[in-house]
């Protein structure tokens, strides 16, 4: 299509991320209306436990394997060493599940333990194949696998819930999706099993140690609040909190896509000594991430209560206050997510851990203090504070390696366009009662139109970049823009 590889892979990643999230939104709406907050809360707890025990079983080896494979040296040996370590540590995570089975069963999830062990086994297969193709730089394959994973998962879950299988149907669909995603990556995996030595294991272990610790912090961010809400409150509260959190995923499309695309690229640029390209790419990535995160947050603050009510049901509408806080979390997440990714990609996992590890401790302490006092709003406040801590520490360490710059002009234009959008949507809400979902969706569409037009007129640079990409994709560009 005449598009350079970085832009092409970013576009593939972005559309894949949007597709995956859209599918998830639609399916979750169905589950929320059909099953209610309590059942969805139990499923959220399963996902939290799966992620925690997967972290224990992965040990950071996935990130280490991507790093070493992407460097282009002895790829097959590092891949085989990664497979060996992954299978070995699976036994550790499975043993931990069995040891804690009594606690897991008390959460109201009867039969969760066998499903959890099965999911961990399938997760090894998925992790090995996905990290293999990702390390080889096949970002498109990686993202297509994620799309297939989610499509199969959602279709299986919808069918199972329709047939009345409830929580078992949600978990079974989750496992089915992982199997399909792993098989797709296996089809394109060029790496082969090869003899490896203690040196290859050491290469992975040295890097993975800090990746593991940093990933522990990320897992705390993602799931400690869910587990502690489940401990202090009911599964229904967990369901409301996780629905609000999932709703904010619309603000992360660009951030997730650029994170996925840039990691192997920055790793290679760092290995080649091209740090100027790293600096430029990080600044652009922040701008493009804020391009979506800011208007989604502003729109969510104005319309969030009605969107939750119509999309998920009256039982979830009480999460509007939590939604407002978590939308701000996703704006801060732009800086935290991209900066820690960059630290890992330039071979600074220790500093990445210092940032996420410190923030993780703060998160747990704040969760323990705030959830009993303020409920799910307390969990959201704890997440926001710790995200700010993580982003600040990550920026401090990254600035010692490369210049960390914010493109002030484009960012100011984004804020200007978001402000114009906010005024129009507020006037719309004050003038027209939001009595049905179509009126609410019309407000969303109007806000998006105003934001886009103001931004494209205010920032010629961004307008020209977007125009060039649209034209290269073969789509028409209006002359009046």
Task: Describe the model.
Helix content is 84%, strand content 0%. With 481 residues, the chain is mainly α. The protein has 2 domains: 402 residues, no CATH class; 73 residues, no CATH class. The radius of gyration is 22 Å and the shape is globular. The mean pLDDT is 83.
Q: Topology of this protein?
A:
Layout: H1 5-58, H2 61-70, H3 75-99, H4 101-105, H5 112-135, H6 139-162, H7 166-188, H8 198-232, H9 235-247, H10 253-272, H11 275-312, H12 320-345, H13 349-374, H14 376-398, H15 408-431, H16 437-458, H17 460-472
H and E string:
HHHHHHHHHHHHHHHHH
Average pLDDT score: 83
Indicate the structural class.
Answer: mainly alpha
Distance between the termini: 23 Å
Number of domains: 2
Work out the strand percent: under 5%
Strand elements, count: 0
The gross shape turns out to be globular
Helix content: over 70%
Q: Point out poorly predicted stretches.
A: none
Radius of gyration: 22 Å
For the sheet with most strands, the description reads: none
Q: What is the tally of helical segments?
A: 17
